[in-house]
Amino acid sequence: MANIAEPTEKQVREWNRWVRGRPAAIQDVIRKHGLRPWKLYRMTDTGHRVTLYSFGEDGTVTVNVTGQYNALTIDRRVFGIDPAELTECDLPGDGEVVGTMYQTDEEQLGFINKRRAELGNPPLTLEELNAMRDNRACAMHGGDDDESSAGTA
Fold first, then answer.
1. Is the pTM of this model over 0.85?
2. Largest Cα–Cα distance in the chain?
């Protein structure tokens, strides 16, 4: 399977030292699933290729879903992922379409507000969108108290 970067021996040692310094719950998740920051993973439920962003003491991880490895509308971070749902995978193949359609904040806001209107929700300002990002709320469906916001950022 592919590495998104080839770690040096020093980086591997630093990673191992970093893991030893984490709470036991995080160490357990990393060791149980063999997670490494230089690996590329596929989410089994969506098929997206992802990179690791962070580890939760609740046994979940947050991942980056980006156009570097997928064809996407908007790059995003997804939290609350069960590491058992990640499998190591290869880089995109030659000629495979990858990229992000809406890259600027303004493009993303326009897309989100279009989808919000389709769902019967009022438009957001850029400030509101950024606050929702900071609070890990779903911009499409509402706010951080909306149960549909779980698992998206």
1. no
2. 53
